[in-house]
Every structure is written in C-alpha cells, then in structure tokens.
C-alpha cells in the first residue's frame, strides 16, 4: 500500500478501485484530502490532468486525486500529499514511462475564491478558474486560466489561453498558440513559436519576442510595443495609445 503523507491539518480517506477498464488506467486508486485554506496554495504536480477552481466553501481546501498506473507496483509508488498550503505529487518511477508502462495522478482541487495560486506542472492539461493571483510554471500540455487576478506564466509547450484577468498578465512561452482576452492591466509576452492573439486589454501590450507564428492584437486602451519579429506578421486594430513596431524588412535583405 502506498504511503499517503498528510499534514497536521489534513484529513484523508483512501478508496481503492482495483483494476479499471478505463483506457490507460488498468490500476487505479482514488484519494480525497481536505485541509484548512491559508490564503495561498502551492501545487507541485507531475504527469496528469490538473484542475484548480474556486468553490463556495469558505476556509477549506479539497483535493480529489485519481492515481492511474499500468501495474500495481507503479501504482503503489505514486503519492499525493497536502501539508498546510502545499500539495505535492510524487513519482518515484519517473511518471509516464514508455510504451505500455505509465503512471499519472489527476488532480481536482477546490479552494476559496481569491486564493493565490503558485503551481508547477510537468505535463498534462491544466485549468485554473476563479482564484486570485496565479503564478504558473508549466512543462507541456494545454493550459486554460480564467477569472483570476494577475497572471505570470512560464510555459514550455502546448496551447495557452488566459481570459478575464483583473491584473497584469506576463507570459514567457516556448511553443504553442497563445490567446489572451479581457485583461484589466497590461500584457507582456515573450514567445518562441506559435500564433499570438491578444484582445480587450485595459493597459498596454508589449511583445518582446515573436516566433514563427502570426500576431493579432485588438482593442487595447494603452500602447502596443513589439520589439522583435517580422512586421508583416503583426495585425492590429483599435489601439488607443502609441503603436511601436519593428521596421519592415527590405526586400532581398537577410531577415536574420
């Protein structure tokens, strides 16, 4: 039986589900954790889906974890813990593995509205909804962040969507499309590759690096500043401040 490490304020119930007929979940365990909310939460997650959302409950953190693996040994090596304001998953057997060998932990976390979130996620889809400020380091997989405060994201690969952020949004992205809509503050983006769409921004927009994809910016109360990239790939409209774009490349000259 895998050991579940629980903090002093946490309660746990362990519900073994045995062999599951679900695809890529031959062996499965369900774990429920509950703890006292402290205004902020740190999540350190490995492979698997991650959902963090606000709930009506006041002062409580609830965690529903589904542990899936290709065999019993891998399943028993997985662990999830809630210790104070920190949730952590452990993968002694190196997460997914190869071929028919795999292991993952899917997390569904409920927190009081306004809770500030710091999350590190290695792989798998991610959703964060209805919380306070968000700081995210994401390895791979799609990410959707909505109805939050300020946002800081360092993203490796996969699509990224941020909507309805009341504060500033800062994104450093490796690859994958970026969509940012309805932001109360300003937006700053550094992008390796993939398309960028930015709409309805209360502050200014600054894009310091533009990869291979196109850029579309619309409805910005402040300035639009793009310091790097091909001008012909940038489309904009309804910019109420100053527009500052890279100079157009002359035909026949090296674009590097």
Structural topology:
Blueprint: E1 11-19, E2 27-36, E3 40-47, E4 50-55, E5 60-69, H1 72-77, E6 79-83, E7 86-90, E8 103-112, E9 116-123, E10 126-129, E11 134-140, E12 143-148, E13 151-157, E14 160-165, E15 169-175, E16 178-183, E17 187-193, E18 196-201, E19 205-209, E20 215-220, E21 224-226, E22 234-239, E23 243-244
Fold and architecture overview:
Strand 6 (79-83) and strand 7 form a beta hairpin. The chain is 2% helix and 58% strand. It has one helix and 23 strands. The chain is mainly beta and 256 residues long. The strands form two sheets. Strands 1-2-5-8-4-10-12-14-16-18-20-22 form a twelve-stranded mixed β-sheet. An eleven-stranded mixed β-sheet has the order 6-7-3-9-11-13-15-17-19-21-23, with no helix packed on it. The protein is flat, with a radius of gyration of 21 Å. The protein folds into two domains: 1-120, no CATH class; 133-256, no CATH class.
């Amino acid at each position: 039986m895998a050991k579940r490490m629980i903090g002093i304020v946490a309660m746990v119930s362990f519900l073994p589900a045995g062999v599951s007929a679900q695809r890529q979940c031959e062996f499965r365990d369900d774990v429920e954790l509950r703890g006292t909310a402290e205004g902020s939460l740190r999540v350190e997650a490995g492979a698997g889906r991650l959902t963090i959302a606000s709930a009506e409950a006041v002062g409580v953190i609830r965690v529903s974890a589904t542990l899936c693996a290709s065999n019993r040994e891998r399943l028993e090596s997985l662990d999830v813990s809630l210790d104070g304001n920190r949730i952590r998953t452990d993968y002694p057997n190196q997460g997914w593995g190869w071929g028919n060998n795999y292991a993952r932990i899917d997390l569904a976390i409920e927190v009081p509205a306004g809770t500030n979130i710091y999350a590190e996620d290695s792989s798998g889809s991610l959703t964060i909804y209805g919380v306070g400020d968000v700081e995210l380091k994401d390895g791979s997989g799609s990410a959707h962040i909505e109805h939050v405060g300020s946002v800081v994201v360092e993203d490796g690969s996969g699509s990224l969507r941020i909507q309805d952020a009341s504060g500033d949004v800062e994104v450093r992205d490796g690859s994958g499309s970026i969509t940012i809509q309805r932001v109360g503050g300003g937006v700053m983006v550094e992008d390796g590759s993939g398309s960028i769409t930015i709409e309805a921004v209360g502050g200014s927009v600054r894009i310091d690096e533009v990869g291979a994809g196109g850029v579309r910016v619309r409805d910005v109360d402040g300035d639009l500043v793009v310091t790097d990239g091909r001008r012909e790939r940038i489309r904009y409209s309804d910019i109420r401040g100053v527009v500052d774009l890279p100079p157009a490349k002359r035909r026949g000259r090296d674009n590097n």
